[in-house]
Write a structure and sequence with these properties.
Elements (H helix, E strand, L loop, with lengths): L10 H25 L2 H9 L4 H13 L4 H11 L2 H18 L9 H33 L5 H28 L7 H23 L15 H10 L1 H18 L5 H8 L4 H28 L2 H18 L12 H30 L5 H30 L3 E9 L4 E10 L2 H19 L9 H19 L3 H19 L3
Antiparallel strand pairs: 1-2
Length: 489
């Protein structure tokens, strides 16, 4: 298989490459579902991980992005990004399969430390591969039409990731006997094998020869250029703020469900899958809006929805677990999934769109490094805060007294992991401020985004549903909302 750059790329080659990118992302997401996220956290908890370990495990992928520094030098020297990416990703996925061996280490503490070390190596090689792919795609793909392509990639990624997560979650939940480490081992082996399918499709994507926009620039000066660009510096600050605010809490949602709310692995997995399915179902809509409006406009709507869901999580168990707790959690995860889809699509497109041609490697690496540093610090800080908040509680009551009785209603009740959701929500205010300073082009209000989203959803549902009556019942409330917002005030 040819891994060196292609001298010429025809339109047919480009279309074939786009299809391969979709397949690569789909299989890669299944690898992630079988190895990371809920499954990795569950495996670490089985080995006796503390909040500090969970925070460190979440921080490692971010700090491993520092590998992009030598990766940039390697790319500029070798100038064969496909070869670098395929090699690095193959090593990473081979090590993912090897994690299965840790399930059979009798000393769980030693296995936990080995897991942390293996995660460092896996993410380091993944970071090198990701840096190569970013530079490669920045040159290969036109700036226009990125929304539709990346929404397709994210859609199929979400579908396969959901299938993988459900399979792994139910395998762990229903594994015979109390020793579930063998179930995790099977999941890791499957992830490693499926990873090579993803690598195959990645290797078939055409790679243009690296373009030079001038004489070679020293690495330090190259990395300083994005930070010296006032317009792009705002993008870097925003990405850092978003990664910090979200990763204070997001890595610990699974632990919150498993430990504090005492749900099983199958329930935690289905909640995650409901979020991913909502993500998939809205990606096409977000993609069309991204191409028609702007990425900044998408973020202005999706970010408040995401942070609103975070602060709503503790409210589902007030004053204690009740019959509506789980249904409310499903609603929150669905909304959060839809918002996350818009955020992932818009943040990915934003860097590709605003980075100047010929400098994509350094500019996109700057975003990655800033986000990695912020996300890693947030994950470690979140783990430390969770340990500190473990013995603390904050409650707000409404006390009402009559002549015959006294009544109290719990308005707010934060304890342990729930404090992280509140802190993350407060940090979200600065994220919105940082977003407001970015200049992407024509400005669009949140109202326009909501109106267009409703219109796209209405058209998509009209194409899917053959039942006119059902369409009318479901779409009339949305239509009235849209009409009302369109009326002059």
């Amino acid at each position: 298989m040819r891994l060196s750059p292609d001298p010429t790329i025809t339109p047919a080659d480009l279309e074939r490459g786009k299809r391969a990118l979709v397949k690569d992302a789909a299989w890669a997401s299944m690898v992630g579902a079988l190895y990371s996220g809920v499954i990795l956290v569950g495996f670490a908890l089985e080995l006796g991980a503390t909040p500090w370990h969970i925070g460190l495990l979440a921080a490692i992928p971010f700090f491993s992005q520092l590998a992009q520094l030598p990766a940039i030098a390697l790319i500029e020297r070798v100038r064969e990004r496909r070869k670098i990416a395929v090699t690095a990703v193959s090593v990473s996925r081979l090590m993912i399969g090897a994690l299965a061996l840790l399930a059979f280490v009798p000393d769980h503490q030693a296995a936990l430390h080995a897991l942390l070390a293996a995660q460092v190596l896996i993410t380091l090689f993944g970071s090198v591969g990701g840096c190569s792919v970013n530079s490669w795609l920045h040159q290969l793909l036109a700036r226009e039409g990125l929304g539709v392509l990346f929404s397709r990639r994210l859609f199929w990624s979400t579908v396969l990731a959901s299938a993988g997560a459900l399979a792994a979650g139910y395998l762990v939940q229903h594994w015979p006997g109390s020793e579930r480490l063998s179930a995790y081992a099977i999941s890791f082996v499957a992830a490693g094998l499926l990873g090579f399918i993803s690598t195959y499709y990645l290797a078939t994507v055409p790679e243009p020869p690296m373009a030079r926009s001038g004489p070679p620039i020293p690495l330090g000066l190259m990395l300083g250029m994005p930070f010296g660009d006032a317009g792009f510096r705002r993008v870097i600050v925003f990405m850092g703020a978003w990664n910090f605010a979200s990763n204070l809490a997001a890595p610990f949602i699974t632990v919150y469900l498993l430990k504090q709310l005492a749900f099983g692995m199958a329930t935690a997995t289905t909640l995650w899958v409901s979020s991913q399915l909502a993500n998939a179902l809205t990606l096409y809509l977000w993609g069309r809006l991204s191409d028609r409006l702007s990425n900044k406009a998408i973020l202005a709507v999706a970010l408040p929805a995401y942070f609103g869901c975070l602060i709503a999580l503790p409210c589902t168990a007030i004053p204690a677990l009740h019959a509506l707790t789980l249904p409310l959690l499903y609603v929150i995860h669905v909304v959060m999934g839809g918002a996350s889809g818009g955020i992932a699509l818009a943040t990915g497109n934003l860097g590709l769109k605003l980075a100047p041609q010929g400098r994509g490697t350094a500019y996109l690496a700057a975003i990655g490094l800033a986000g990695a540093a912020a996300g890693g610090l947030a994950a470690i800080g979140g783990g430390a805060l969770a340990s500190w908040f473990e013995t603390r509680e904050l409650s707000l009551f409404v006390h009402f007294t009559t002549a015959s009785a006294a009544h109290e209603v719990v308005v707010m009740h934060f304890r342990h992991w729930e404090f992280l959701f509140g802190v993350s929500f407060l940090c979200g205010a600065y994220v919105m401020h940082a977003l407001s300073r970015i200049r992407e082009g024509v400005e669009h209000s949140e109202r326009v985004v909501i109106q267009e989203f409703v219109s796209e959803a209405s058209r998509s549902f009209a194409q899917l549903s053959p039942i006119d009556g059902l369409k009318d019942v479901l779409l009339i409330p949305l239509g009235r909302l849209r009409d009302r917002r369109l009326r002059p005030r």
